[in-house]
């Protein structure tokens, strides 16, 4: 099963990668920059597999660069908050 098929699985996957990045000393600015790059890649190359991903793709495609950075940062925050629950 692909991590993209289930939104909770996707968040868990991202959370594990985020934790690894933080443990290796990556700062929030670098993490948000990479999250923005990943968002751009996914929007351009990956078909959404569920309603949540479709919504994120629509928001991403409607956003300007500053808004994309904000969406990526929000997704990072969502993943961080999911890890603490």
From TrEMBL:
Name recorded for this polypeptide: DUF3243 domain-containing protein
Organism: Virgibacillus indicus
